[in-house]
Amino acid sequence: MVLDIKICGLKTPEAVAAALDGGATHIGFIFFPKSPRHLAPAQAAHLRDAARGRAKVVAVTVDADDAALDEIVARLYPDMLQLHGHETPERVSFVKKRYGLPVMKAFAVREASDLAAIAPYKGIADRFLFDAKPPKGAELPGGNGVAFDWTLLDTLDADVDYMLSGGLNAGNIAEALQKTRAPGIDVSSGVERAPGEKDVHLIEEFFQAIARADKKSSADHA
Q1: What is the rounded CA–CA span in Å between residue 104 and residue 175?
Q2: Are 4 and 163 in contact (CB under 8 A)?
């Protein structure tokens, strides 16, 4: 199985290049004014050209209205939309039909019951993203650098396609992959020197840690 790797919250050509050169299958641009990773659609459109033919471009929004999504789609031409707010199954279905794009729906996880919330979205969302619930008082639904109990994912049906997010970094990605066997991973704050400021060296270290984990896994199963 090929691991999908998404580097999210990119804002500079250097960070985009580091993600692509490292082997990212997905790169994410965030459109949420409260986030330090927020970009205007025109800024993201300038950055996305480097990814053509190399990685899928994901537009991340939080309870965005039709007007905002119209502008993002028209300027960015994303390959996928990620809905990171309180979007209902009906809203996800509407967005898919309106733009003809696959949708990844994000869920905040702290306990097993949080995973049960995906049930009405099955067959509607193309993929799920599981992130840790934000700390009390946090304004951002994701990118807070906290992880959740990965063993909770043991209860998922085998056919659930998802990306693991929340607190991932070069130091814990091997453990995360070993414990979850996640088909995809998403990192943002774990490769930053400060909120919203990606560090090229941390991105490189993240990919190196994945490569080491993959090599060890292959040796263990040889």
Answers
A1: 24
A2: yes
* Residues whose CB is less than 8 angstroms from the CB of residue 82 and which lie 6 or more positions away in sequence, other chains included: 28, 58, 59, 60, 61, 103, 104, 105, 106, 129
Token pair of 81 as six digits: 């939309």
Averaged over 130-135, what is the pLDDT?
A: 83
Helix and strand totals (H; E) in the chain: 7, 10
**Domains in the chain: ranges and CATH:** 4-220 (3.20.20.70)
- 149 contacts 138 by C-beta, under 8 angstroms: no
Whole-angstrom distance between the N-terminal and C-terminal Cα of the chain? 15
Contact 127, 156 (CB under 8 A): no
Is the per-residue pLDDT at 1 higher than 70? Answer: no
The rounded distance, in Å, linking the Cα atoms of 205 and 222 is 26
- Burial label for 204, CB within 10 Å (0-12, 13-18, 19+), is middle
Cα–Cα distance measured from residue 165 to residue 184, given in angstroms and rounded to the nearest whole number: 9
What is the C-alpha to C-alpha distance for residues 111 and 149, in angstroms, rounded to an integer?
8
Distance CA 82, CA 75 (A): 16
Residue 86 has what pLDDT?
Answer: 95
How far from 118 is each of 122, 160, 163, 211, CA to CA, in Å?
6, 10, 13, 31
205-218 average pLDDT score: 90
CA 140 from centroid of its chain's CA atoms: 14
Q: List all residues 6 or more positions away from 121 whose beta carbon is below 8 Å from its beta carbon.
A: 89, 92, 105, 128
